[in-house]
Amino acid sequence: MKVLTLNFLTCAVKSCKTSVDSFPLHPKDAELVSDDVELNPQLLVNLLPRIDWNALRTTATELGFPTLPEQPPTPEELQADEKMLQDLHKLLMETQISEGKLVCGACGHEYAVREGIANFLLPSHLV
Amino acid sequence: MLPTPSTSHVPYSRVYEPAEDSFLLLDTFSQDSETSFLSTRFPAGSSPTPLLLEVGPGSGVVLAFLTAHAATLLGRSDVLTLGVDVNWFACEAASETVRRTVGEVEAEAEGVAGQVDVGNGSGEKGVKPRKSQRRSGHLLATAQGDLASPLRPGAVDVLVFNPPYVPTDELPTLPKELADPTTATTTTTTTTTTTTTTTSNDSEKKKPVPKTTYAQESTLLALAYAGGRDGMEVTDRLLASLPEILSERGVAYVLLCAQNRPEEVKARVRAWESERGRWMAETVGSSGKKAGWERLQVVRIWREGV
């Protein structure tokens, strides 16, 4: 699963949906692999408005990537900033989580990731 | 006509094989009316990247079709796609189907671009072919889960669901050991009816080959078709989650069969309350006409005036 996925996922436990701590899920013991994807600046520019930047900053830091700036770049800034384009492309489009866990900051439930597939099925007591 | 993605690698003993319902979805998305609806709803270049979720992708034939032909079907290639399936084998199969199909489509696009360059009269041999325009979107992940439960509220722009729609007396439940078959290998090896999938060149990988019994495989397939009362028990849960899961511009495509009473379903959706705009539900594709009845149909659900 691409790292970008974490920006769209949350804890599957119903009562966690309203808690701010359930997003983003926190990777734990994550093994990362990298795909070769061609850089598409337009994709990154169109992605910006729908990214939760604070959550992405958290994810990047937790996975050991360089700290992202506090504020997201504007589309114009991003288009002109080759380094930022490369960094975001690598983090969002190329990096995949292959093994590990995703932990909810609200209820503490750990979702396993195996062979790149995260398992969000809940044990019966959490449904 | 766009080619149907190949699913020859999918283990059909554990994953629903593409059938009339899957092909109806492919046909529906290929129609001019749908490509024009989607490219108007998500105009290329001027609106944020759309996120497409298929719930229960099974073999991945529909997810692969939509991902690989994003430029044709949605009018843009900056489309992100996701699949969530309760069946682990389906997650694995669907992701492979998408990978293969995207690879084929991009290779073909490259080939065409290369030929155009060679034949354009430049006279230069060995000129590096111009990079072709990407045709495909990007698969983010397939994940195991219950319907859209792992998705952040308001995240999904296009949702596709080919549900278990056959009316049945009972609704199957996923056996506990199949909730995570990658760790269940050791517990099922003693069963006499296990089937083993072996790939000769896989032996060096540490990856265990999950085994399933015949009974487990029957349950996995039943989960893909058995819909309980009126064939609507699972679909009703998904429909109930749409107002929360869909973005404001979001649109869902849900396949129904005649026994699901599609007219009543559409009327119920249209009566949903909405703070902004109003809910719409229309049949946008159908197949299997029998004595004036459409056996299968695809219903598009969206908000207008938002």
TrEMBL record, chain A:
PANTHER family: MULTIFUNCTIONAL METHYLTRANSFERASE SUBUNIT TRM112-LIKE PROTEIN, UPF0315 PROTEIN-RELATED
InterPro entries in alphabetical order: Trm112 (IPR039127), Trm112-like (IPR005651)
SUPFAM superfamilies: Trm112p-like
Organism of provenance: Humicola insolens (Soft-rot fungus)
Protein name: Uncharacterized protein
Family according to the record: Belongs to the TRM112 family.
Pfam families on file: Trm112p
TrEMBL record, chain B:
Ranges annotated as biased composition (Low complexity): 182-199
Biased composition (Basic residues): 128-137
Gene3D superfamilies linked to this entry: Vaccinia Virus protein VP39
Region named Disordered: 115-137, 170-212
Keyword Transferase annotated: yes
First and last residue of the signal peptide: none
Keyword Methyltransferase: yes
Coiled coil: none
Family: Belongs to the eukaryotic/archaeal PrmC-related family.
Keywords: Methyltransferase, S-adenosyl-L-methionine, Transferase
The protein's name in its UniProt record: Uncharacterized protein
Organism of provenance: Humicola insolens (Soft-rot fungus)
